[in-house]
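Quick check before the chapter quiz. The format below is the same one you will see on the exam, so make sure you can read both the input and the output lines.
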Amino acid sequence: PEGFAMIALGSMARREIFPYSDLDFAFLVREPSDVAYFERLVDLLHLKIINMGEAFDQKGFRMDTRLLSKEDHYRLIGTPEQLAEMQNEENSGELVTLNAMASVSCIMGNCDIVK
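Here is the expected output.
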């Protein structure tokens, strides 16, 4: 898809990432129909990380499990409006997610979507 942006979140966006940091990132898409493509892409990326000998534990290079969750509430793939909806009073208990989304940086794609 052409209308997308991959954005860094949290420590990666703030350029504070360390060897034991998890990868916090999201995909913004213009069309909701493109979400399935990026879900498959994230699954393949996750397999690549596992193939490097990494896992879900707290040590080493790993992906943020919120990106991998199948619950729409935590899935960090969607339109800018969908991800903005996550920052509401209902999700205020998810401080880790809200904190990660407080800092964003465009990694690749159409960075105008981020604005």
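If your answer matched, good. The two ends are 19 Å apart (CA to CA).
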